[in-house]
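INFO batch 0412 | record 1 of 1 | parsing
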Amino acid sequence: MGYPMAGHLAAAGHRVRVYNRTRRRAAEWLEEHRGSCVASPREAAEGAGTVFLCVGNDDDVPSVVLGDDGVFAGAAEGAVVVDHTTASANLAHELQAAGDERNVGFVDAPVSGGQGGAESGQGESADAAE
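INFO prediction complete | emitting C-alpha cells
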C-alpha cells in the first residue's frame, strides 16, 4: 500500500524520498512518479520533518525503523514517524518509547481500505500518538 500512498504525496507536490527493501520496486515507483529513491531507511529520514512507512507486519517494522540504518537513526530531533503498517499495540508502544529516547515523534496510524483504497486515495487512517 505504501507504493500508491507515496505516489499520491508526490502528485500533491510533496518532495518524496522512497526506500523499498526491494530495490526494483523503488525503481518502478520512480519511473511513475516524481521524487527520489534512497538506499536505506536512514537516508530516507535524513532531513525530513515527517516520515511515513507502510510495511508488511510486526516483524518488518523494526527492521526498517531501528538499527544503524533505520529511520530513527536518520530522523532529526522533532521529526515525526508515521507508521501505516497494521501492527500490534505492543510494537507501537515499543517504537513510541524508542522515538521518545531520540526526541522523535511516533504515530501508530494503520490504514483501512486495503490496496484498492490506497490506489484510489480513499484509504482511511486511525491514528494514535501520545
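INFO post-check: Residues 114-129 have pLDDT under 50 and may be disordered.
INFO record closed
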